[in-house]
Structures are given as C-alpha cells and as structure tokens.
Automatic annotation (TrEMBL):
GO biological process assignments: phenylalanyl-tRNA aminoacylation
One MF term in the entry's GO annotations: magnesium ion binding
A single GO cellular-component term on record: phenylalanine-tRNA ligase complex
Pfam families on file: B3_4 (PF03483), B5 (PF03484)
Protein name: B5 domain-containing protein
InterPro entries: B3/B4_tRNA-bd, DNA-bd_dom_put_sf, Phe-tRNA-ligase_IIc_bsu, Phe-tRNA_synthase-like_B3/B4, tRNA_synthase_B5-dom
Record PROSITE patterns: B5
PANTHER family to which the protein is assigned, alphabetical: PHENYLALANINE--TRNA LIGASE BETA SUBUNIT (PTHR10947:SF0), PHENYLALANYL-TRNA SYNTHETASE BETA CHAIN AND LEUCINE-RICH REPEAT-CONTAINING PROTEIN 47 (PTHR10947)
Domain B5 positions: 152-234
SUPFAM superfamilies on file: PheT/TilS domain (SSF56037), Putative DNA-binding domain (SSF46955)
Length: 257
C-alpha cells in the first residue's frame, strides 16, 4: 500500500492493489452495480450500492468502488502472497457523481474528479511493480492486461502570435520575430509540442497531463504566467467611456418616489 500511495504522489495516478487469492475466479470485471448489492469498504463501512454505480467486481460480487475506495474482502494483509495491481482512468464527471452518492471522498477520488493524465496508467503500473520487486523482493509476473481504448486524442490548437501580443498588450521581446521565438521557448519548457510553424501562427499540442488546456486563450494564459505578470506593463484605456447616467426605468422610479 505504501508503494501504491508513493506512485500516486509521484505520478498523480491512483492505483489499487487486490489480494488476488481473495478475488473469486481470479477475474476482474468493471461493471455497474446490481439492485440490492452491498460492499464493505476499507473503512469498515457496509455500504448499500445505488443502482448503476460503477464498481470493480469479481465473478460473484463487487470488490471496490471504482475510482473511490477498495473493498475489505480483497484487502492486502500480512498473509497476502499474490497481488493484482489496477491502474485505471475513470471519467471525472461520473466519479464526482459517485463520490456525492456515497458521501465518500478519498485521495484517489479527488484526483479522478479533477482529471488525470490519460497516458500515464501503464507507466504508473510498471513503476509500482518495479518498486515492489526492488523493495519488497516481489516477483513480477510476465505481461499485463491493457484495455486502453486510446482515450487520449491530441488536441491541436492554432496559436496566433499577434493574438498573444494583443491579449498581453505588448511584445514579449524587441520585435515580433524574437517574441515568437520566446513564445516557442516558453511552450517547450511547459512540454507543449509545436508541431507546425505556419508563419503568423504555430500549431500546438498540449501535453496529455494538461487536460485543462483546450483553447488558444488557455495557452496565452500559460505564456503570460511563465513570462511574468509583473513584466506586463499596465496601460490606460485608449478610448473614452461614455457616462449615460440612469436609464429610463430608474428615472421613472425616482420621480415616483
């Protein structure tokens, strides 16, 4: 458990370890809960499962609340000999709903709710297995089961250099050419991949762990953050704001009073 928690802190990927000898049929099934099903979670609470809650189950019963907490029945203890490691990606919206249903919030559910890297599951699994082997002298079984449906689809975003300058209200360097080079360097430091230079704009792919970056303005915000808000010079409006006073409705109300 210490290793799975360590890897979660290291990579941001929650993991769960099952005692494989306590998993009936040695089979793991991801499914929706059935009417009347219950589960005793690791906090020793017997929970009634709401209909259609996502669970991890063996061939007979649920053994974990998907993305939230494991079950007591398949818990690792001093007598465990065979360990099954689970490294999964759960939909953030669905996970948030399940957390609300159970009134149960954990380190794992917090991360799934906010969205995790869709490409780190296998790395985290291999990392945990490596540490179990090196620290606990565990023997790693060959192969792994991967049901990845390629959830991660790179999001290509066109970033206009002039748009960056307009939003920030200034050039980031002496001229537009140097400004563009500076922007590309900032993106490189943030692990944003510039896949094509189109002259006045560049095509950018955010890293898989930055699911919050979806639009051009999101990238501009990242550029401003790294460049330094303190370096952006404050300027006044270059136009006059008309003061029209009260509207007709307010004038009538004043007269009525």
């Amino acid at each position: 458990m210490d290793i799975t928690n360590f890897v979660m802190m290291e990579t941001g990927q929650p993991l769960h370890a099952f005692d494989l000898d306590l998993v009936k049929g040695k089979t793991i099934i991801v499914r929706k809960s059935k009417p009347g099903e219950t589960i005793c979670t690791l906090d020793d609470v017997e929970r009634q499962l709401p209909a259609n809650s996502l669970v991890i189950a063996d061939i007979e019963e649920p053994i974990a609340l998907a993305g939230i907490m494991g079950g007591k029945h398949s818990e690792i203890d001093q007598n465990t000999k065979n360990v099954f490691l689970e490294s999964a990606y759960f939909n953030s919206i669905n996970n948030r709903r399940s957390t609300a249903k159970f009134g149960l919030r954990t380190e794992a559910s917090n991360r799934f709710e906010k969205g995790i890297d869709k490409e780190v599951q296998i790395y985290a699994l291999d990392r945990a297995a490596y540490l179990i082997n090196k620290i606990a002298m565990g023997k790693i079984s060959s192969g792994k089961i991967d049901t990845n449906k390629k959830l991660y689809q790179p999001n290509k975003i066109n970033l206009r250099i002039k748009r960056v300058n307009k939003i920030l209200g200034q050039l980031l360097d002496e001229d537009e050419s140097k400004t563009k080079n500076k922007i590309i360097k900032i993106l490189d430091k943030l692990e944003f991949k510039v896949v094509e230079d189109k002259g006045e704009c560049v095509e950018v792919i955010p890293p898989s762990f930055r699911g919050d970056v979806e639009r051009e303005i999101d990238i501009i915000e990242e550029i401003a953050r790294i460049y330094g808000y303190d370096k952006i010079k404050p300027t006044l409006f270059n136009t006059t704001i008309a003061q029209e006073g009260e509207n007709f409705r307010l004038k009538v109300l004043d007269q009525v009073r």
